[in-house]
Specification:
The complex is a heterotetramer of chains A (311), B (101), C (94) and D (104).
Chain A (H helix, E strand, L loop, with lengths): L2 H20 L3 H21 L3 H28 L13 H20 L8 H6 L8 H9 L1 H19 L22 H23 L7 H17 L11 H23 L9 H28 L10
Chain C lengths: L1 H25 L3 H24 L5 H35 L1
Helix pairs in contact in C: 1-2, 2-3
Chain D lengths: L1 H24 L3 H26 L3 H10 L3 H9 L25
Helix pairs in contact in D: 1-2, 2-3
Classes of the chains: A mainly alpha (311), B mainly alpha (101), C mainly alpha (94), D mainly alpha (104).
Chain lengths: 311, 101, 94, 104
């Protein structure tokens, strides 16, 4: 009988996605997309993927909403929030989309059912240094992938910063934020960060043995940073500050150092020998969580602005 | 029909929905949203594939987690480009599509 | 006994959620709709947390349920105040 | 108990589905945003109800949803303040006028 819950959830996810695409107005689409992210977090729990649900919850509930709504506000101040009236129904696009969905459904039905999970993983897991298999895959077995992905985040941030204007370069990141002293928003910004930092650190810390880890905890900490910045508790830093730049590269740097350490010990680059795997992964997790948190927070806040761009 | 198949079909439908939005929408912010729908639809599809046979497979989960984070960073870059375009032109649409409205 | 408590409290909680949604749909303006959000739903969530707490295996889980409810209360209070202010300004601004 | 909790979770989802009608209709942007806030609360409720079934790690996900339940709405009032960084409780500055339909 429990499939009825899955059916309800899937129907709602699909309906919300359709509302995002078909509804008139950009703002409505953004709100439905936020709801969509929340529902996806529930779907990941139903699919037994709590690690994914943690990341989706922090990103879907917190970061995407702020990112797109802030963009909407900026577009509105540039007079670019309006949408042209819908043209004719795009039949070719609808047919192509239906074909794409059909192909994926066909692939699902046609694909043979593999033995799950692969026996290689179960054999290798005791040597990984951590008990959470997702963390073992991320930071040990597929370390190359994860290392390069942490560099991709950095590349995205560099790309975003290249959009800053020359006269804004020495300004703090994002728009200047101000709140009524002692007001509701200011109080919220004071109460939430301590709890949030605690939750984020906890999620990073338990990642070795239970659902959690650098990516999940890093996204939580990034969202906490956004709360603190929006509520005026902290001022966003300037691009030129060295300490913050160091925080951005700490994760990839420690990851790379651990990889070189593995090579020095004769196990090969990015292959963690069993006796140092546990402590190496712990060090990587902490540094990577810091870098992911700072990078994502900076990406959402946006490039440095003077606050006069829209006038 | 098992629950996992249901999620796989939902993922497939999400990819189609997002693909339609990507082509049909003209406002660029909506295109980024649609692109995210495609991405997350594929994540759901992949996650469902990993959950077949009862136990959830950690390998797709690890891929999806990094994928979600990278998708957010790509969205942030795209949003930055759109805002820069809108400030330069006063419109958030591609020039060749900017007719009417 | 504990199962009965779970049944009663979670059932009550879901009823409050349904009532909140009906109010959210039927109330005439944003200010009264915000009541549906802050009153009915948060009371409903409290009952659900209470009901689920009877299934908990440790005090840590009960404490986490209580923390989550407190966080939702904080969020709802903040949001309703700020959104109401925003709506008021938007209405009076034009 | 599993069946009961599953059906209660379904009940919360159905009530959310009703609330999403308001997100679709609006009419104001504040109405839509309030609907998203309600979706967050409902998500927390569903995760609580699923915790005894799916494992108590589910509560960690609920804690994160609860933690950032207000973030999107705070971002909303900020983004639509006069200069994009304000607070609706401040004395000066009206919300940003929009080029599009005020309800879009």
């Amino acid at each position: 009988m429990t499939w009825a819950l899955d059916a309800t959830l899937c129907a709602m996810i699909l309906a919300v996605a359709l509302a995002t695409v078909l509804g008139r107005g950009v703002f409505r689409a953004i709100v439905f997309f936020v709801v969509y992210g929340l529902l996806l977090a529930l779907a990941w729990v139903r699919l037994d993927a709590v690690d994914v649900a943690l990341a989706e919850a922090a990103i879907g509930a917190g970061l995407t909403g702020v990112l797109f709504l802030a963009a909407f506000g900026r577009l509105a101040r540039s007079g670019a929030d309006a949408e042209p009236p819908p043209g004719r129904v795009n039949i070719a696009a609808a047919l192509a989309s239906a074909a794409l969905t059909g192909a994926l459904v066909w692939a699902w039905v046609a694909l043979p059912l593999p033995g799950r999970p692969g026996p290689e993983l179960a054999e290798a897991l005791p040597r990984a240094g951590v008990e959470n298999p997702v963390t073992a895959v991320l930071l040990n077995f597929r370390a190359w992938d994860t290392l390069l992905e942490s560099v991709v985040l950095l590349a995205a941030l560099v790309g975003l910063w290249m959009l800053a204007r020359d006269e804004a370069w020495t300004e703090p990141l994002g728009l200047p934020q101000h709140v009524r002293p002692g007001g509701v928003m200011a109080s919220f910004g004071r109460i939430l960060p301590p709890v949030g930092v605690l939750v984020g650190a906890y999620v990073v810390y338990v990642g070795a043995d239970r659902p959690g880890g650098a990516f999940q905890g890093g996204t939580v900490l990034a969202a906490v940073g956004i709360v603190a910045a929006l509520a005026g508790l902290v001022r966003p830093p300037r691009v030129t500050r060295r300490a913050w730049r160091a925080a951005l590269v700490a994760g990839p740097a420690v990851f790379l150092a651990a990889g070189l350490g593995g090579a020095a010990l004769g196990a090969g680059f990015l292959t963690l020998p069993e006796r140092i795997a546990g402590s190496a992964i712990f060090a990587i997790e902490i540094a990577l969580a810091l870098s992911i948190a700072v990078t994502l927070a900076f990406l959402v806040i946006g490039p440095p602005e003077t606050g006069l761009e829209d006038q | 029909m098992s629950g996992v198949t249901l999620y796989a079909l939902t993922g497939a439908a999400l990819v189609g929905t997002g693909f339609f939005g990507l082509i049909a929408a003209r406002h660029l912010l909506r295109r980024v949203l649609a692109f995210n729908l495609i991405g997350s639809g594929l994540f759901v599809y992949l996650g469902a594939a990993g959950a077949r046979g009862g136990e959830a497979d950690p390998v797709p989960q690890a891929l999806i987690i990094t994928g979600i984070v990278v998708a957010l960073s790509a969205s942030a870059l795209a949003v930055g480009l759109i805002v820069a375009l809108a400030r330069a032109r006063g419109r958030a649409m591609l020039p060749e599509e900017d007719v009417g409205g | 006994m504990t199962d009965l408590a779970t049944h009663v409290f979670t059932g009550l909680g879901v009823l409050f959620f349904l009532a909140g949604s009906v109010g959210f749909l039927r109330f005439p303006d944003i200010f009264s709709r915000l009541h549906a959000l802050t009153k009915a739903d948060n009371l409903g969530l409290g009952f659900i947390a209470l009901g689920v707490a009877f299934q908990a295996g440790s005090w840590r889980q009960v404490a986490l349920l209580a923390l989550i409810w407190a966080l939702v209360l904080l969020a709802a209070g903040t949001v309703s105040q700020l959104v109401a202010r925003h709506a008021l300004r938007e209405r009076d601004g034009r | 108990m599993t069946v009961w909790l599953t059906f209660m979770a379904m009940g919360v989802l159905v009530s959310l589905a009703g609330a999403l009608v308001r997100v679709w209709r609006g009419p104001g942007r504040a109405d839509r945003m309030t609907g998203a806030q309600l979706a967050g609360t409902s998500g927390v409720a569903v995760l609580m109800l699923l915790a005894p079934i799916e494992g108590w790690a589910t509560l960690d996900v609920a804690a994160i949803l609860a933690l950032f339940g207000a973030l999107a709405a705070v971002g909303f009032v900020k983004a639509l303040s006069a200069d994009g960084g304000g607070d609706p409780e401040e004395e000066d500055g009206d919300p940003v006028p929009l080029a599009g339909d005020r309800n879009d």
